[in-house]
Amino acid sequence: MIRYHLAIALSFAAALSPDLLAQATSTGADDDVPPAIKLYRQALADAVARARESVEAKQSLRIDHSNWADPWRIKRDQIEVVTTQSYGIGLATAKGQEAMLQAMTDLLSPDFEASQPFVVMIAPDLGMYNSLNGNADGRSSIYGSYYNAGIAELPVVTYQQQNPTLLQMYITHGLSNAFVRRAFNNQNIPAWIDEGLGSYFSLWWSKTWGPAELKRIIAEGQYIPLQQLLSDPITSYTPADTHQRFIELGMLFTYLLHHCEDTRSEWVDEEWAPGGFAKFLRQRLSGEGEGDELTAQLLSRDLATLEAEFRAFDFEGN
């Protein structure tokens, strides 16, 4: 495996002229060097990183990590996953959640850099999950994962699921809560924004499930009006209606960020241009201006009109 990774880098070296190869293997800075040199150095760095990861994995695979006292710890640049299930599950989770962290950064805080990796703990069962729940503040434990919003450094905790997509969705919701607390020093974030972001990013794991669930909720008369949804505090969320709230909020954010002409973000000249809702989220999370005033500006038109358009929108056909 190590030979394979290094061969990738060496194949770049074989294509370089002697002069360029001398530059490529020097320890000088990347400033003002030809693109081929930068490409070679990057390929070599990637190959070494993959080789190191491969060696560490082989060494760790020989050890029994099925006990919570000595679990798997899969560490990457931005995230660490703790699990007793398997190295493969932990690695897949870490890679998936790193991609979600990048999406959160792009949308909410492009300049954010974490001072330490985010930690995700996957308890082996519901009993262990409940025993670890002592540091939770009760906010998201009703939806498969929890995160203490009052202590930004604490881990996101969930429990093992048979459905790998559901596991990733639970983690992403808690990770979104954690990201918001680390990226923004703001303890006065409305529940609909905090949980809306968590739900929005969670639904990335299944583009079809969210629209189907929203349609079912509306058809079965379980829909919560926007006036109530956007004003209720987190203490109003109950096990009986949390699922409906999260689906509605996730799909509302999807509508406002991607579909509503007045608020959506778009690609302009191959660059992503944040629209009205993305700008609103950044301002509100940063604590710029008065929150109620910003919300009023966002929802300046009749809320009933927005609700009618949202409920009627064909997500499955767009």
Question: What can you see in these coordinates?
Answer:
The structure is a single chain. This protein is α/β, with parallel strands linked by helices. The protein folds into 3 domains: 1-62, no CATH class; 64-185, Collagenase ColT, N-terminal domain (Glutaredoxin, 3-Layer(aba) Sandwich); 191-317, no CATH class. Helices cover 53% and strands 8% of the residues. It is built from 13 helices and 7 strands. It has helices at residues 2-14, 18-24, 35-61, 87-108, 126-131, 164-183, 191-202, 209-219, 226-229, 242-258, 276-286, 291-298, 303-312; strands at 72-75, 79-83, 118-123, 145-146, 156-159, 266-268, 271-273. The strands form 2 sheets. Strands 1-2-3-5-4 form a 5-stranded mixed beta sheet. It has a two-stranded antiparallel sheet with strand order 6-7. A hairpin with a 2-residue loop joins strand 6 and strand 7. Helix 6 packs across helix 7. The protein is globular and about 60 Å long. It starts with a helix and ends in a 6-residue tail after the last helix. Mean pLDDT is 81; it is low at 135-141.
Task: Provide a concise account of the structure shown.
The protein is an alpha/beta fold. It has helices spanning 2-14, 18-24, 35-61, 87-108, 126-131, 164-183, 191-202, 209-219, 226-229, 242-258, 276-286, 291-298, 303-312, and strands at residues 72-75, 79-83, 118-123, 145-146, 156-159, 266-268, 271-273.
